[in-house]
Amino acid sequence: MAHPDDLLALARLKAATCSNLPLLAAQAGESARRVVEGLPVLSSPYVPVGTVWGIPTDRTHLIVRQDAEVSSDRSVFYTSHRVAICAIARVGFAFPHAKALVRVIIAATDPTA
């Protein structure tokens, strides 16, 4: 997972010095999704700039803290046959093996140097 600005910078990198292959390859059938060595790279504005997180999916849990509340309202769209639906769920993430998380710091480099 990386900040969108970092993901853009990583998309410009090549797989090797003498290579023309991009570091982030497009996944077959999904042109907008990027992968590195077959693993998806996600973008989030909540990741600090200059940091990339490697999060193993087999050591990550989604915890439901409270049952979802669902409500509907037909009066909002009374001019047509539509229903407004609101759903609220309280969830959290758990990382029982904290040492499995990988934090990569991207060092700022000057390409003209």
Features of this protein?
single chain; 113 residues; three-stranded antiparallel sheet; two-stranded antiparallel ribbon
Report the average pLDDT across residues.
81
Order of helices and strands: HEEEEEEE
Shape: elongated
Q: How many discrete domains?
A: 2
| Radius of gyration from the alpha-carbon trace, in angstroms | 20 Å
What does this 3D model show about the protein?
The longest helix is centred in the N-terminal third of the chain and has 8 residues, at 4-11. The strands form 3 sheets. This protein has a 3-stranded antiparallel beta sheet with strand order 1-2-3, with no helix packed on it. It is 7% helix and 40% strand. With 113 residues, it is mainly β. It has one helix at 4-11, and strands at residues 25-27, 30-36, 39-41, 51-54, 61-73, 84-94, 102-105.
Q: Briefly, what is this?
A:
The chain has one helix and seven strands.
Layout of helices and strands, plus pairs?
Layout: H1 4-11, E1 25-27, E2 30-36, E3 39-41, E4 51-54, E5 61-73, E6 84-94, E7 102-105
Antiparallel strand pairs: 1-2, 2-3, 4-7, 5-6
